[in-house]
TrEMBL record:
EC class (word): transferase
Function: Catalyzes the formation of N(7)-methylguanine at position 46 (m7G46) in tRNA.
Gene name in the database record: trmB
Record pathway: tRNA modification; N(7)-methylguanine-tRNA biosynthesis
InterPro entries xrefs: SAM-dependent_MTases_sf, tRNA_(Gua-N-7)_MeTrfase_Trmb, tRNA_methyltr_TrmB_bact
Family in the record: Belongs to the class I-like SAM-binding methyltransferase superfamily. TrmB family.
Transit peptide found in the keyword field: no
Name of the protein in its database record: tRNA (guanine-N(7)-)-methyltransferase
EC numbers, comma separated: 2.1.1.33
PANTHER family in UniProt: 3-DEOXY-D-MANNO-OCTULOSONIC-ACID TRANSFERASE/TRNA GUANINE-N 7 - -METHYLTRANSFERASE, PENTACOTRIPEPTIDE-REPEAT REGION OF PRORP DOMAIN-CONTAINING PROTEIN
Catalytic reaction annotation: guanosine(46) in tRNA + S-adenosyl-L-methionine = N(7)-methylguanosine(46) in tRNA + S-adenosyl-L-homocysteine
Pfam families: Methyltransf_4 (PF02390)
Keywords (A to Z) from UniProt: Methyltransferase, S-adenosyl-L-methionine, Transferase, tRNA processing
Coiled-coil residue spans: none
Length: 211
């Protein structure tokens, strides 16, 4: 998600260290201590403006959530939502999703969400897609045995690529939705992009894949 640079975004993040982990390398292996409990930890790579991660945290108080985004301005908007929600089971990280092993120990995360990631449609950019095999290597390392990835996208090309990538990696496709909003799936929390695309009548794809 590309947004206009937000004035004061860096200061906004720095002024809220309870929610924004400012030294994420130090958090590796200590996330249960940071949350103050041993509840499952779910992360969203590319959390955007925070609608999904905040909605999930409010809907599931028995789970801890970490929203990850590299863009300072975007994450500052997510912080606004977190502060407004007053949810204690959310933390935010301003880091690159390709370097997750720097911030999470082996098997420290229970589930990973990829929502409306950049599709990188050109074949030469395939290695940048968040479901490319090198990213899957990283996810597998921080997830437990049989850990899961839940992906949503409006981009059919990325969805088809991801299904193939998961399968070729040896992952199990637990369930696939070719039109999520027309299905009987319950408890869906929409991202900002999802709401926008849904309002335009676009189909939303979803898959749950397990290592």
């Amino acid at each position: 998600m590309r947004v206009r640079r937000r004035k004061g975004a860096e200061e906004h993040l720095a002024n809220n260290p309870h929610y924004v982990i400012l030294n994420p390398e130090d958090a590796k292996g200590h996330w249960q201590e940071i949350f103050g409990n041993d509840k499952p930890i779910h992360i969203e790579v590319g959390s955007g403006k925070g609608a999904f991660i905040t909605g999930m945290a409010l809907q599931n108080p028995g789970i801890n959530y970490i929203g990850i985004d590299i863009q300072v301005s975007v994450l500052s908007h997510a912080l606004d939502k977190v502060l407004a929600s007053e949810a204690e089971n959310i933390r935010l990280l301003q880091v690159d999703g390709s370097s997750l092993t720097n911030y999470f120990a082996d098997e420290e995360i229970d589930l990973l969400y990829l929502n409306f990631s950049d599709p990188w449609p050109k074949k030469k950019h395939a290695k940048r897609r968040l479901t490319y095999k090198t990213f899957l290597d990283t996810y597998k390392q921080i997830l437990p045995e049989h850990g899961e990835i839940h992906l949503k996208t409006d981009n059919r090309g990325l969805f088809e690529y991801s299904l193939a990538s998961f399968s070729q990696y040896g992952m199990v496709l637990k369930q696939v939705w070719l039109d999520l909003h027309a299905s009987d799936y319950e408890g869906n929390v929409m991202t900002e992009y999802e709401q926008k695309f849904s309002d335009k009548g676009q189909v939303i794809y979803r898959v749950e894949a397990m290592f």
